[in-house]
Amino acid sequence: MTKTQRITFILICFMLLACGRPSVPDSFQKESREPKVMPDYTNVTIPANICPLNFRVYERGKEIAVRISAGNLQYTYGDGMKVLIDEEEWKELLMQSKGSKMVVEVFVNEGNQWMAYEPFNIYVAEEDIDPYISYRLIQPSYVAYGKLVIAQRNLTNFEESIIYDNTLVNTPQQGQCVNCHSYQNYHTDHMMFHMREGLPGTMIVDENQIKKVDLKTEQIISSGVYPAWHPTQNLIAFSTNLIGQTFHTKDIAKVEVQDTESDLILYDVAKNEIFTISNDSNELETFPTWSADGNTLYYCSAHFEYNNDSIKDGEIIQRYRDLHYNIYARDFNQQTHDFGEKRLVYDAASENKSATLPRVSPDGKYLTFALGGYGCFHVWHSDADICLLNLQTSETILPEELNSDRSDSYPSFSSNSRWIMTASRRDDNNYTRPYIAYFDKTGKCHKAFEVPQRDPEYYTLCPYSFNRPEFMIESVKTTPEQFAAEAKKEAVKAHYIK
Amino acid sequence: MKKAVYTLLFPLAAYLLLMTQTDYLHAVAENDLFVSGEAFFAETIHSQGGLWTWLGCFLTQFFYYPWLGALLIVALWTGTYFLLVDAFRLKGNLKLLAWIPIFALLVSVIDIGYWLYYIKMPGYWFSQSVSFFSATLLTWVITKLVQRWWKHDIAWIVFIVVYFAIGQRFPDFTHRDYSNHLLQLPFFIAPISVVLLPVWRYIHSHIKTDKFISTSWLDDIVVIVFLLLISTAAYFCSFRNANFQTEIRMQAAIESYDWNKVIKEAQDAKNPTNLMVVFKNIALMNTDRLPEMFKTNNCGCLPETGDSLSVRIAQIAGPFIYYHFGQINYAYRWAMENNVQYRPQTRNLKIMAQCAIMNQEFDVAAKYLTILRHTTFYKEWAKHYEPMLLRADSLHKSEEFRQIAPLMNEDVNTLDTDNSMPEQWILCHFADLVHPKTPKQDHLAICAALWLKDEYATCYQFYNYNKNYPGNSVPELYQQAAIMLGTREDSPINLQNFPFDQLIVTRYERFNSDYSSMSNAGISHQEIGERMREFYGDTYWWYYYFCDFKAY
C-alpha cells in the first residue's frame, strides 16, 4: 500500500466512523419515566408529510442513542445529545406508521452507565397537512423595530424562504414596519400585507399582479389593519384601529396593546373602493373573519362607553381590565354586498373573558378563537388559551392538548380542517413559536407539536418571534425584490363609497 | 534595522493610542455581539456585506481584552500596509503613503464617541478594516498573478474593482433626522488614498529624473515628520471627552458592584453629566448613603457629543439604570428596544437575562444564558447566573437580589409610559410612591422628590419617613429640605414643632442672608451660585436654587 493509499484508507475509515450510527447499549439501567426532550415531541400526533422531528435530549449525560421503530423498520440516531434524523429514513418511518405510531426509545450515557428511559410514541395521522406556512419574523420588542421579514416555510422539509424583507427598502432615516400578511382561501395568488412608517401602504397581490394601495381616507379612523380575504370574492374585510400601547411596571405581561377606537370596513380590491361595515362609537369592532362559504362575517367587538371623550387614551388605560370582546356574526349577501344585523355568537363578556382572533374551519363546523381575561392582544396575556366552538351544537371546549399555561393565541385551521396551528409562548413566555395540533374528525384535539427545525436548538438561539402563522397550500411566487420595487412606488389612494 | 524600526513606528503609535482608550474598547466589546454557531452566521450573512459583518463581529469581541483587540487590529493594519507596498511596488519614502489608509481606518475606530450606542452596523470596529484588508489581499494576489505575463501596473484598477466587488456595507451615522457625514470621511480617504498611490509614484519618479536631491538624513526626517504628523492627527481626531470615558468606567464599576469606585469617579469629575449623577446616586443608594447625594455634585449637565447627535439616557444606559432601580420590566423593555433598533449587544442580552431572573421568568432567562454560553468571553458570566435558575437560595443570596429586590414594590402595577426619559420616570415613580415598603424605598422616595424639586412629594415623603421611623434621627439632607419648604409662605406643611437640628436652621438662615445681601448688591443669580458654591455646595438649598434638573 502506497503512502497515498494509506492516507486515503485512513480518511475513509475516519469518515465512515464519523457518519456511523450509535448503537443501542446491551446493558443499561431502566429509568421509569419518559426523557425530557426539546422540543417536546413525546406522544404528539403529526401528519405523514411533515419533515423530521429533530430533538435534543435534556438529561444528564454526554451522548445518546435513540432508536425509532415503526412496523419492521428501525433506525438509531445520536449526535452528542441531539437527534438529527435523515430525511429519507424519516419518510420511510412515516410511511410505515401512517394511521398508527412510531416508538422512540432513548438511551443516555451518563459516563459509566447507560440509562434507558420509558419509550414514547409519535402518532402519525391519516390526514396530511398543508405543505406551507408563513409568518412574520419579529423580535418581541414593543415600539422599536429593525429588520422585519415575512417568511414561508415548507413543512415537508426544512426550507425557509423570504416573502418580504424590509431591509430591501429601509433607509438610515426611515425604517419600515410590515405586518398582517393574509391570503385568500390558502392560495397565494391573492394575498396582501401592510407596510407602515417608511413607504407606507397595503401591498396586494391580485391574480399575481402587485399593487400598493393607500386605504386611509378621511371618512375612516385609520388605514385597514386586521384583514380577512373573502374566500371566493375579490373583497377584503378590514378592521380600522387606533392602537396604543402602555407598559406594565410590574406584571410580566409587560405591555398592554389597546384600541381606543375601532371599526370595520370592506375593501373591493378590483374597484379600489371602501365601504363601512360597522362604526358604532360605543363598540370596538375588530378581527374580522369569513365563514368558508363566504356568507357570514364573524368579528369581535367590545362594548365600551367612555365617561370622558376628551381623555380617551387615559381612560382606556385606566380601565384596561374592563375590555371584554365578544364574537358576533353578520350575514353577507354576496350579490349585493349588504350585511345583515349582528348576532351574538359567543358571549365572552358574560364570563368576564375576552374572545379574539376568530377563525372558522373550512368544513364550517368549528369556530376557533383566543380566549383571555381581558383586552384584545392576547399574545401578551399568559392566561390566553385557544377555544373551539362547535357551530352546530354551540358547545365550547378549551382543549388541554392544544393549550398551555402560557399565552396561546392566533389559531388557524389547515385547509382540510384537521390541523390547528397556534402562535404559542409556551416555550419561554416571551417568544412566539408555531405549534400545530391534530384535530380529528370526532372533534378531539391531540397533543400539539412545535414546528420542527433542522437544529433542535434553533428556537433557543433564535431571537425572533413567529408572528401570525398562516397555513398555505402553495408558496408565494412573487419575489422579495418584486415586492420591494412596488413598495418604492406611490400608493394608489382608495375611494371611500359609503 | 532602521527600516524595520521605521515600519513599526506607526503601528506602535496606533497601538499606544488605542491603549489610551481601553475603557472605550472594552465597552465596544460589550456593545457588540458575536455568537458562535450556524444560526448567528446565517442571520448575519443574509444582509448586505454580511461576511464582513460576521468577521467584524467575530474580531470585535476580542476588545473584551482591549490589549488583545488592539493587537489584532494593528496587526491587520500592518498586514494591509505590507500588501499595499508590495502590490503597488512602493519604494523608499513612498511607502509612507501606504499608511494613509491605515490612518483613516484608525481614526474611524476612535472618533465615534457616543455613536458607539447608535451605530446600526454590527461589528463596525473591525468590519471595515477586514474588508479593506481583504480587498488589498485580493489586489495583491491578482496583481502578482497577472504580472507574471503582463508587466503593466494594474494594481489600482484591480483594487477599484475588488473594493466594490466584495460588497462591503458603508457605515452610516444617522440617528433620527441627524446625519454626521464627517464620520464617514475615513471611509472615503482610505480607498481614495490607495487609488492615488500610482499617481504619487509617477510624480516621484519624475522628480527623481529631474535630479531631486535626496540624502539619507533628509529621508529620515521625512519619515519621522510624516509619522509624527499622522499619529498626532489621529490623536486629535479621536473622541477624547472625559465624561464619556468616565460614564463607561462607572458603568463597569456598577456591574462589578464596586460602589466605592463609582463614587470616586463621580468625585473626580468636574462637570458630571446627568448619567454620571445617576450612577453616583445608585452607588450611594447601595451603600446606604443616599442622603449624601447633594454633598457630592448632584448637578448634571448634558453630554458633549462633539456633533449634533441627540443623546438619550434611554439608549446609552436606560436598561442599566432601570435595572439598578428595580424597574425590571422597563429595563427589559429598553434592552429589547435598543437591541432591535440599533444592533444586537451583549450588554443588552446580559440585562435581559438578569431581568428574566429577577422576574422569575426562568425559561427565557435560560434562553439568554444559552446564547451567552455560545459567546467566547461571556461563558463564565452565564455560568455564574445559571444556578439561580434552579435554586431559589442561589438567587436570594446573590448581590443583585440583595441590592435590587428591596426596590421592587410587589404591590404596585400600573400601566404607564416613560416617554423615553428613564431618569425622569424613575424619579417620578419613586417620588409618587404612596406606600414605600422597605427602608431603601423610603429613602429613595424622599430623595427622588428632592432630586425632582417636587415640593408636594417632598413634604409627603418627609411625613412618611418620620411616620415610619419615629424616634430615629432624621438625616441632615431631609432636615435641610424640610426647613426650606416649611418656612416658605406657600408651604404645604407646617413644621413649627418639628425638632430640627439648630445648626442646620442657623446655616439655612445664613444661606438666606448671604443670598439676599449678594442679590441686593446686584450680583446675578448665576454669579451668586458660583460664589455660594464653596460654602453651601453640599446643601440641598444650593441644588434647589442653582441647579437645573435636565433629563435627557
- Output the number of helix runs of chain B: 29
| Average pLDDT, all residues of chain B | 92
Q: Give the overall pLDDT of chain A as a whole number.
A: 94
User: What kind of assembly state do the chains in view correspond to?
Assistant: heterodimer
CATH class placement of the largest domain in chain A:
Mainly Beta
Count of domains of chain B = 3
CATH architecture tag of the largest domain in chain A: 6 Propeller
Question: Tell me about the biggest sheet of chain A?
Answer: 7 strands, mixed
Low-confidence stretches of chain A: none
Strands of chain A, total number? 36
Brief account:
The complex is a heterodimer of chains A (498) and B (552). Chain A is mainly beta.
Descriptive terms for the model:
heterodimer; A: 498 residues; mainly beta; Neuraminidase; 2 domains; 5 helices; 9% helix; B: 552 residues; mainly alpha; 3 strands; 1% strand
Structure overview:
With 498 residues, chain A is mainly beta. Chain A folds into two domains: 30-124, Immunoglobulins (Immunoglobulin-like, Sandwich), CATH 2.60.40.10; 132-493, 6 Propeller (Neuraminidase), CATH 2.120.10.30. Chain A has five helices and 36 strands. In chain A, strands 1, 3, 5, 6, 8, 9 and 10 form a seven-stranded mixed sheet that branches. Chain B is mainly α. Chain B has three domains: 2-239, no CATH class; 243-407, no CATH class; 428-546, no CATH class. In chain B, 65% of the residues lie in helices and 1% in strands. In chain B, strands 1-2 form a two-stranded antiparallel ribbon. Classes of the chains: A mainly beta (498), B mainly alpha (552). Chains A and B meet through strand 19 and helix 4 of A and helix 3, helix 17, helix 19 and strand 3 of B.
What's the structural blueprint in terms of helices and strands?
The complex is a heterodimer of chains A (498) and B (552).
Chain A (H helix, E strand, L loop, with lengths): L2 H17 L9 E3 L5 E2 L6 E2 L8 E3 L5 E8 L2 E5 L4 E2 L3 H11 L3 E9 L4 E4 L2 E5 L7 E7 L10 E6 L5 E6 L10 E9 L2 E11 L3 E6 L2 E6 L9 E6 L5 E14 L6 E14 L4 E6 L4 E8 L5 E8 L8 H7 L6 E8 L6 E8 L7 E7 L5 E7 L12 E6 L5 E2 L10 E6 L5 E6 L8 E6 L10 E2 L7 H4 L3 E8 L7 H8 L4 E2 L1 E2 L2
Parallel strand pairs in A: 1-9, 3-10, 17-35, 21-36
Antiparallel strand pairs in A: 2-4, 4-7, 5-6, 5-8, 8-9, 8-10, 11-12, 11-34, 12-13, 14-15, 15-16, 16-17, 18-19, 19-20, 20-21, 22-23, 23-24, 24-25, 26-27, 27-28, 28-29, 30-31, 31-32, 32-33
Chain B lengths: L1 H18 L2 H9 L7 H8 L4 H11 L5 H22 L11 H12 L13 H23 L8 H11 L8 E2 L2 E2 L5 H11 L1 H13 L6 H22 L4 H14 L3 H10 L5 H13 L26 H4 L1 H7 L3 H14 L4 H13 L3 H12 L5 H12 L1 H5 L2 H6 L10 E2 L5 H10 L7 H14 L2 H14 L7 H11 L15 H19 L4 H12 L3 H7 L6
Antiparallel strand pairs in B: 1-2
Helix pairs in contact in B: 1-5, 1-11, 2-5, 4-7, 5-7, 6-9, 6-11, 7-8, 12-13, 12-14, 13-14, 16-17, 17-18, 18-19, 19-20, 23-24, 24-25, 25-26, 27-28, 28-29
